[in-house]
UniProtKB/TrEMBL annotation:
<dbReference type="InterPro" id="IPR036282">
    <property type="entry name" value="Glutathione-S-Trfase_C_sf"/>
</dbReference>
<dbReference type="InterPro" id="IPR033468">
    <property type="entry name" value="Metaxin_GST"/>
</dbReference>
<keyword id="KW-1000">Mitochondrion outer membrane</keyword>
<keyword id="KW-0813">Transport</keyword>
<dbReference type="InterPro" id="IPR017410">
    <property type="entry name" value="Metaxin1/3"/>
</dbReference>
<comment type="subunit">
    <text>Interacts with MTX2/metaxin-2. Associates with the mitochondrial contact site and cristae organizing system (MICOS) complex, composed of at least MICOS10/MIC10, CHCHD3/MIC19, CHCHD6/MIC25, APOOL/MIC27, IMMT/MIC60, APOO/MIC23/MIC26 and QIL1/MIC13. This complex was also known under the names MINOS or MitOS complex. The MICOS complex associates with mitochondrial outer membrane proteins SAMM50, MTX1 and MTX2 (together described as components of the mitochondrial outer membrane sorting assembly machinery (SAM) complex) and DNAJC11, mitochondrial inner membrane protein TMEM11 and with HSPA9.</text>
</comment>
<feature type="domain" description="Mitochondrial outer membrane transport complex Sam37/metaxin N-terminal">
    <location>
        <begin position="42"/>
        <end position="162"/>
    </location>
</feature>
<keyword id="KW-1133">Transmembrane helix</keyword>
<dbReference type="GO" id="GO:0015031">
    <property type="term" value="P:protein transport"/>
</dbReference>
<keyword id="KW-1017">Isopeptide bond</keyword>
<keyword id="KW-0472">Membrane</keyword>
<dbReference type="InterPro" id="IPR019564">
    <property type="entry name" value="Sam37/metaxin_N"/>
</dbReference>
<comment type="similarity">
    <text>Belongs to the metaxin family.</text>
</comment>
<comment type="function">
    <text>Involved in transport of proteins into the mitochondrion. Essential for embryonic development.</text>
</comment>
<feature type="transmembrane region" description="Helical">
    <location>
        <begin position="295"/>
        <end position="317"/>
    </location>
</feature>
<keyword id="KW-0496">Mitochondrion</keyword>
<keyword id="KW-0653">Protein transport</keyword>
Amino acid sequence: MLKFCPKKCFRVTIDAKNNMAAAMELYCWKGDWDLPSVDPDCLTVLAYARFSGAPLKVHKITNPWKSPTGSLPALKTKDDGCISQPHKMIIHFRKQKYNADYDLSAKEGADTLAFICLMEEKFLPALIYTLWVDSKNYVDVTRRWYAENIPFPLNFFLPNRMHSSFLDRLRLIKGDNGLEPGEEAEKELYKDALECMTLLSQRLGNQTFFFGQSPSSLDAHVFGLLAPLLKMKLPSNKLQQHLKSLDNLCHFCTNILTLYFPPEGADGPSRKASSPHGGDNSEFDNEPHKRRNQILSVFVALGAMLSYAFLTGIVSVHRVDSHHAVQKTEAVRIGEDEINGED
């Protein structure tokens, strides 16, 4: 006798709908230091997608010019085109019925917004300062990583452009044009960040996630901001030391990495088999405009080298007055005629 199971039929219908839906494509910075990505914004989007079950085809790259928006992260969708802002990507996931906050109460939803605003106002400026303004960290870690991983010739100028962009972002958040490396700036930024981390630690307590056993958008934001600080090896590590003293936040980040971002080898060989060339599809080995990009890279490289030569004085251009040049040429010709006449 056959039995009808409405729950099972409902789940099969949902799964069929998900399989028919085209997977969205996320372009993000590649990972390092045991992180799926080195960029906080990319980590936030990746974590939220894993928490909500959103189907993503992830391209981990080191060349922002290969993304559809020219920046990272970037989300390519069928309905809304290309999205470049993380919060808009999360909104798009929710529109597609992939909502990590579905089970939250009204109060928990309000707490989520409050803590996200707190982190963006109090913690994010200190993180930007630590990675992009602190001279030791910037020179030895941040700029070095991007310069070594971004392909030539973009690695000559993209890290500097990113540095300027993060400084502008920091000034926009703090509303201060005088945020330069120094003791006073560090004290102000770090004081707020330390208090923010302590509040997060108290709110998390002994729970696995901030609202119990299921992760939410708050967990994605906290993970995206804290994981790089926890894993990167920074010579100037005042902020990092405080984070490592908060055991529950450290376990929180490690737990998410273990559960949702296992090592690539643990995912089996099926992921690498997706590329028809046998390589990593995320690096676009089969890109249709690869030849055009190679030619463009050559011209950019030549331009960069010529610019460097002019700036350093290796090559210089001197203006020659045409009138004096004609007189000199005429004098040389007359001199030659006189010599020939004497002969």
